[in-house]
């Protein structure tokens, strides 16, 4: 049997394993090695899928994300059915409208110029020209946004993989483990899906970095808050709201529905994954939560909503990484001392969730080309 080792149990690692364990790939034996780090970016991802980023002309993954979005609901439907869980699709994934709130008309118009592409370019791609609209005096509305409950999706994926016979090994991936794999003649493929840890891990193993990872690394430590019934009477068709700061450099994001609401914000820039300045992060979070509270209380469109007691919400912290404007790195690694084919598959920030339904097919084409 073809043996595949995946390092990392975040959204990309689990999604790749899910695709490669479908019936058409019978004969592939997969093991996932993970240390279940409490600061995993996948676990702490906000629920919103930044689909409006698809409108950026600079986005090289434009078509791929659009395809992923089209099949997302059906993909989750099949996972729920196989897991035999009682959750509904709408409690995990939802399409709807998003709205950005700005402090002035001028700021709104500046941001609009960033996210709205030329109508002729959109028409050439058979895309609607009215999916991003300026409304009232200080808002931008997006007609096609999405969100996913990150934690629930990870849980369902893991349950499905266990049922399909995927093995999970709780272990730190160190030099010793790497060398054991390199000399194991039964292992054919190795994939690093380790997010913010990928660059330092490859360097520690003396593996040449992919070209995209030689660009300036942008590491951040961020928080996502969530709780039940944080916002009452949330209009059912609005699933994403963002409050943009006056300098346009930070924001507070609300996503989800009336049953479970997620709050995330701009992250704290750090120098390395060993740099965990929780005091500074908590200080920033306090400011963000106060801004979120004031926004909900002061907004005339949200008068019927109420906020929460800070003791009643949960918080998850996680490392996130980026390299320029690259949202996903998928490349073959040069390991000359072994016949094993090795690859890296790493998403920037929470972008892994955008690619989750489609990443497996791309990895499959790389593995067996």
* Average pLDDT: 84
* CATH class category label: Alpha Beta
**CATH-level-2 architecture:** 3-Layer(aba) Sandwich
The general outline is globular
User: Into which percentage range does the β-strand content fall?
Assistant: 25-35%
Q: How many domains is the backbone divided into? A: 1
Q: What's the SSE pattern?
A: EHEEHEHHEEHEHEHEEEEEHEEEHH
Number of helices: 10
Tell me the total number of β-strands: 16
Helix content: 25-40%
Rg value:
21 Å
Distance between the termini: 18 Å
Please mark out the parts with pLDDT under 50 across 5 or more consecutive residues, or reply none: none
What kind of sheet is the major sheet?
10 strands, mixed
**CATH topological fold name:** Rossmann fold
Structural class: alpha/beta
Q: Could you name the CATH homologous superfamily?
A: NAD(P)-binding Rossmann-like Domain
């Amino acid at each position: 049997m073809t043996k595949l080792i995946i390092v990392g149990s975040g959204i990309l690692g689990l999604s790749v394993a899910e695709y490669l364990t479908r019936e058409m790939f019978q004969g592939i034996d997969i093991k996932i090695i993970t240390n279940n780090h409490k600061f995993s970016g996948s676990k702490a991802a906000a629920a919103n899928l930044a689909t409006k980023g698809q409108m950026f002309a600079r986005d090289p993954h434009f078509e791929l994300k659009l395809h992923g979005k089209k099949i997302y609901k059906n993909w989750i439907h099949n996972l729920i059915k196989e897991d035999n869980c009682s959750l509904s699709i709408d409690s995990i994934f939802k399409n709807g409208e998003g709205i950005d709130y700005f402090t002035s008309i001028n700021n709104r118009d500046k941001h609009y110029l960033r996210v709205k592409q030329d109508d002729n370019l959109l028409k050439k791609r058979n895309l609607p020209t009215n999916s991003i609209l300026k409304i009232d005096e200080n808002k931008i509305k997006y007609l096609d946004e999405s969100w996913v409950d990150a934690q629930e999706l990870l849980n369902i994926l893991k349950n499905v993989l266990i049922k399909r016979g995927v093995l999970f090994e709780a272990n730190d991936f160190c030099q010793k483990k790497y060398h054991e794999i390199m000399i194991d003649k039964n292992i054919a493929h190795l994939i690093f899906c380790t997010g913010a840890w990928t660059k330092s891990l490859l360097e520690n193993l003396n593996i040449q970095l992919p070209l995209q990872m030689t660009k300036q690394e942008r590491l951040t430590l961020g928080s996502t808050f969530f709780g039940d019934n944080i916002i009452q009477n949330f209009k059912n068709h609005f699933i994403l709201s963002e409050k943009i700061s006056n300098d346009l450099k930070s924001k507070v994001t609300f996503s989800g529905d009336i049953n479970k609401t997620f709050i995330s914000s701009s992250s704290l820039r750090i120098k390395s994954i060993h740099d965990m300045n929780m005091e500074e992060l908590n200080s920033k979070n306090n400011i963000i939560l106060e801004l979120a509270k004031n926004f909900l209380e002061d907004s005339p469109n949200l008068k019927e909503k109420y906020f929460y007691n800070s003791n009643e919400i949960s918080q998850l912290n996680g490392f996130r990484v980026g390299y320029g404007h690259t949202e996903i790195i998928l490349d073959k690694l040069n390991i000359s001392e072994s016949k094993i084919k090795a690859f890296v598959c790493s998403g920037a920030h929470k972008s892994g969730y955008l690619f989750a339904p489609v990443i497996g097919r791309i990895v499959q084409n790389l593995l067996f080309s």
